[in-house]
Amino acid sequence: MNPVPDHCTRALAKAQRNSVDTSGAIAIAHTRDGGADLYLLVYPDRLELASTGTLMRAGAGRERIPLTAVTSVTAHRGLLRSRIDIETGGHTVSFGTDRPTAPYLADLIQQRLTGAPAPDNTALLHHLTELHAAGLLTDEEYATKRDNLLKPPS
Length: 154
Known about the structure:
By secondary structure, the chain is of the alpha+beta class. It has helices at about 5-15, 100-115, 120-135, 140-150, and strands at about 25-35, 35-40, 45-50, 60-65, 70-75, 80-85, 90-100. It comes from Actinoplanes campanulatus.
């Protein structure tokens, strides 16, 4: 498994600033679409797409995709941005992200599909500590995020 991309660390901080519940997620990606913040959260047993909605929070919500419904996952790398396509029995969910994150998430989801153990969050914890040391996270935010990362998957 490749090291955790910086994008995932920043996405975790942004999600929690936007009150998106990230408890138990082993990876998070972020994108914007039509003024809404969109998140792809990878859990040991499912994927979740979360939206904060637009300016007036229209369209906010969360969609669960059980891993048992995922038939394939593919990363497509572009010049500037990449995307991950998740196939669920004839339906494709596409999620745009930065270049290193799409293959990272595709590998991680593929591992979850094959029953591989959850990744070691050491690199993510290191990045979280750096964000805290740089003053980008309060003590309370840091403690909450650290505890979420250290919790065993449910």
